[in-house]
Amino acid sequence: MAREELTRLTGNGNGNCNNDDCPNVYRTGTGSIVVQGDLSTAFKPPAGEGLVEIPEDVLKEAVRALGW
Fold first, then answer.
1. I want to staple 10 with a disulfide (CB 3.0 to 4.6 A). Which of 27, 38, 52, 61 is the partner?
2. Residue 35's beta-bridge partner residues?
């Protein structure tokens, strides 16, 4: 799946993490959520899964964008 196929719910939209545009939350065409953020080492997830850390304000921004 390409980033262009996702609906961006957070961030300033420039798509460049070097310009304070990360972390981000996206919505797929099927309604699931994709999270982009710094890798976390809080625990070892099962094979095929990963952990990312995102600030609470980014989640709140995504919730507002979805109108929840």
1. 61
2. 25
